[in-house]
DNA sequence: TTCGGCCATGAGATAATCTAATCTCGCTTC
DNA sequence: GAAGCGAGATTAGATTATCTCATGGCCGAA
């Protein structure tokens, strides 16, 4: 249907009525009389050639067609409304509440935030770091960057980068490592992902080692511990390659463990806003130029 | 901004003008005069307290604020328009063009389509099978179900089910398999994913075997070949477990190879329609009830 | 029954929207 | 540098779409 034909006011009337299922109350929300709504909705039904409501003694019931139309319109008007609200201060501004797993925030995102700010000064990015156990809805987040295999319920996921893991340790400890078995002679720093070391050793045909010591909930802590010669750790290559280059950490073995990837996630229930789309594209292009 | 305050007509006027950057031409699209548009847009700017266009000698240029608003509105009105078009026949009907990787279509989707049809008779699902090499935009598909690790560009992915692979062969051949090495005595059926067998043998600490013979582009062909005693194949557990139960195939070893998962994918550029959302939720609930 | 809640309807009022005619501005062109 | 042109702005008045008011009909509850 072409732009000039869109019965915008009638659609709004229908949307409000579809939520109240009562013209009188819907009329209050729209600040008009019940009669006005009645006219609008009848007009819409005629225009579409479809019955949207079944009129029953005590009110309205949506027809099959009404059921298909109403939620789309509710979403559309909510989005319109939300977008217009972003102009309330006299210029556009949007807030994105972003959850980010600690290590990604520290090693990748935070250093690049100024670049995003420069490109999108009207978007107010609020970063909430976490240990990857993140509940988008419960924590009021719009987006979350997390580590995993992309399998989250009710979530649209966009892969950001590979999460292949490498073994790291301090330059001092590296001297003691001639072959893979030598790793067993030093503490192996553990994450809450239980079988990482087991799988790493399996690659080399070795049995699972006995693990002791504290469990860390972020690669950042593991990298720090490793850098201070407290043991060897498994950390994502993509995040900690700069530590290798600067000599803070050493990578004694080439083997990689694929444990998951980094993803940008959003609840399916919340459609993507302009700013969220801009952020996603900025992320994608940032990875694109690095590769 | 509350529903009654939404300046719908003015927003439509702005949206059209933002595409033409020329009030005169925009007026033609909206079937009104240039003066009408000029009024509407000035009214909108006053209402929002924001300048949306910079007036320049030969036309209009969007301001920063206009740039943020225009694409949202274009998407919104396109969606509205598309949704209303689905009523053109007098009742709601929507078409979803779905690309599906062969094996998933044959073993999982096709048998369940009647269930979806029953729940959503107004949605017309058109299934296009392919060998997983699918280009959503190029092939005019709305959605695609494919196998992989979720890493596709410009795509929102929702994981449907695990794609763990198992070794299968015919009951006859299974008798010859006492241990993993015995596999090397029979043809190993190849897919176009090159190193599957290599990785499967690596799990057992064995070197990569020499592979010969045809390469198949769908697990379905591999399963068929295996069932006819032409060799052993690697196929997804979730799709072919019924072949095991019926005795058509045998699973001689427990070991699983994780090669990827099955995903529902959609271009970020195309927002999800009602029907697409319904289809995604139907898929999710179908897997939920099975697990 | 009678009342109350709810939607439908038709005629007239109202307000939003549009048109027509005219201006202004600044670039082009000769 | 003057005329012409293409664009948006403006103003007043016309035109509609939209709304209100008053009323009617229907159905279930009291």
From TrEMBL, chains A, B:
Q: Which SUPFAM superfamilies match?
A: Periplasmic binding protein-like II, Winged helix' DNA-binding domain
Q: Which InterPro entries match?
A: LysR-type_TF_proteobact-type (IPR058163), LysR_HTH_N (IPR000847), LysR_subst-bd (IPR005119), WH-like_DNA-bd_sf (IPR036388), WH_DNA-bd_sf (IPR036390)
Q: Which GO terms describe its biological process?
A: DNA-templated transcription
Residue ranges of domain HTH lysR-type in the record: 6-63
Classification via Gene3D superfamilies: Periplasmic binding protein-like II, Winged helix-like DNA-binding domain superfamily/Winged helix DNA-binding domain
Name the keywords, alphabetized.
Answer: Activator, DNA-binding, Transcription, Transcription regulation
Q: Give the GO molecular function terms.
A: DNA-binding transcription factor activity; sequence-specific DNA binding
Q: Name one Pfam family in it.
A: HTH_1
Domain of life from the UniProt record: Bacteria
Say which family it is in. Answer: Belongs to the LysR transcriptional regulatory family.
Q: PANTHER family this protein is in?
A: HTH-TYPE TRANSCRIPTIONAL ACTIVATOR AMPR, HTH-TYPE TRANSCRIPTIONAL REGULATOR
| Protein name (database record) | LysR family transcriptional regulator
Organism the protein comes from:
Paracoccus alkanivorans
């Amino acid at each position: 249907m072409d732009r000039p034909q869109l019965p915008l006011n009638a659609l709004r009337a229908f949307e409000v009525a579809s939520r109240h299922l009562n013209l009188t109350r819907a009329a209050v929300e729209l600040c008009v009389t019940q009669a006005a709504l009645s006219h609008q909705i009848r007009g819409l039904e005629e225009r579409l050639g479809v019955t949207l409501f079944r009129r029953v003694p005590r009110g309205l019931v949506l027809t099959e067609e009404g059921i298909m139309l109403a939620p789309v319109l509710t979403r559309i008007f909510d989005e319109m409304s939300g977008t217009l609200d972003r102009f309330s201060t006299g210029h556009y501004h949007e807030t994105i509440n972003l959850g980010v797993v600690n290590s990604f925030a520290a090693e990748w995102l935070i250093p690049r935030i100024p670049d995003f700010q420069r490109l999108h000064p009207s978007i107010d990015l609020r970063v909430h770091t976490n240990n990857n156990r993140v509940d988008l809805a419960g924590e009021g987040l719009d987006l979350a960057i997390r580590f995993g295999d992309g399998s989250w319920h009710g979530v649209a996921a966009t892969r950001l980068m590979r999460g292949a893991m490498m073994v790291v340790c301090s330059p001092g400890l590296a001297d003691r490592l001639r072959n893979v078995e030598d790793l067993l002679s030093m503490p192996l720093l553990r994450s809450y992902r239980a079988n990482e070391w087991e799988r790493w050793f399996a690659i080399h045909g070795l049995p699972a080692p006995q693990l002791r010591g504290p469990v860390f909930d972020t690669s950042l802590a593991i990298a720090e511990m490793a850098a201070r010669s407290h043991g060897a750790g498994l950390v994502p290559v993509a995040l900690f390659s700069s530590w290798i280059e600067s000599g803070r950490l050493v990578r004694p073995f080439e083997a990689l463990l694929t444990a998951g990837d980094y993803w940008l996630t959003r609840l399916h229930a919340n459609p993507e806003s302009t700013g969220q789309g801009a952020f996603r594209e900025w992320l994608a292009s940032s990875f694109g130029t690095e590769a």
